[in-house]
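Quick entry, no commentary yet.
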Amino acid sequence: MARRKLTLYFDLHSPYAYLAFYVIKNSSVFKTCDITYVPVLIVAYVNAIGLKPPWSSPNKAKWFQTDIARWCREYNIPWNQGLPANYPFKVTTLKVQRVLVACSLECPSRYPDVLNALYHAFWVEKKGVQLPQVHEPIVARVVGDKLAAKIIVKSTTEEVKSLLKQNTEAAIASGSPGLPWIKAVNGEGQEEFFWGFDHLGQVVKFLGLRRLNESHL
């Protein structure tokens, strides 16, 4: 049987993608999987598929905080109430998503740790990581000043800009209606896509993993 594979398409902007990332990274359930984290740009979904985010409706905007808090309590995910600085669209996540693409290329072994640090700063500490003056020191703290500087320069290249665009287009073309978008390949090589943190249990079942619950974190 081949190793199971899991690909998480994410944008820091999506709180539900944060929940999916945290559980996938930290739960022992997924330790036997080859995991790939793919940065995309959520604002591109608005024009491409007419995505309407939760904050487009006052009731949805209020409800999603209640919903997320419940999930976080159930799965022991770090979370504080409130919204991050500059959220939702005062400043887009374009630059920090490019930094994450660059990080995946320059230091793939540290990439999950950088992503974890940025997610924690954004959704737990509520810092505006969209801004370079906020996310650059966080990257440096994880990988060191020299490598961080290399990553930041790389993030401004046409290669990285093109990759982020390609990632986003590929996710949308595969049917993604929003984030998190998950591609799973089981031990028999069968492939399925799943949308939303609330379908992570279906991902576990499809991959033939043991049942997911909060005790695994």
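second:
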Amino acid sequence: LRYGALVTKRRARAAVVLVWVVSASVSFAPIMSKWWRVGADAEAQRCHSNPHCCAFASNIPYALLSSSVSFYLPLLVMLFVYARVFLVATRQLRLLRRELGRFPPEESPPTASRFVSPAPAGPYASPAGVPSYGRRPARLLPPREHRALRTLGLIMGTFTLCWLPFFVANVMRALGGPSLVPSPAFLALNWLGYANSAFNPLIYCRSPDFRSAFRRLLCRCRREEHQAAASLPGDPSGAPAALASPAESRQCPPLN
């Protein structure tokens, strides 16, 4: 409910930078420094010394640390936050229905009774005769929040289903050896995790907010291209550079 006040552009940028810094610290620093080789088993050492072996066999501390920081801790945070959001949304909807239940339904034609309750007389009536209260919860509570909640749940569910098998197998291989999880199965689980990146555009595009943001970004790029073309000199024949047609400019929504 306080998302607009808490999540500012500065905090969002700081969160993105923090995520990339943590990812680089977990991945690049230990791998480039070869910390993940310390204490590895004999099979892993043979793979490291073989230039034709591309398997990534890490030691137990690095496998546990990287799996915890990269997946398990973020998963716990996401589950906690999503549970809090779901509980708050459910409580607010219950309170809203309780308040709206105090007003009697309107006895009017079916087309109007679906949306409004009887307009009160006196100073509480709106100028157009439309009541300022008494609407049904589905009309007062915008479906935008419902769609956002469903999209968030779908994103978290897809992320968990795609990456949980791989990180479980990663810890099992580190603790029990490569024989515990065969290499073909481990590779398939790894690619299942990569497939999550292919599902994300399909999931995010279900949200009108993301579609609107993508449209603004694409139209901004098109406008910048047209402005760059307009700033260039004309062709040798003396004709000026082509500008965007009125129809093309109307396709792009105005930027704030």
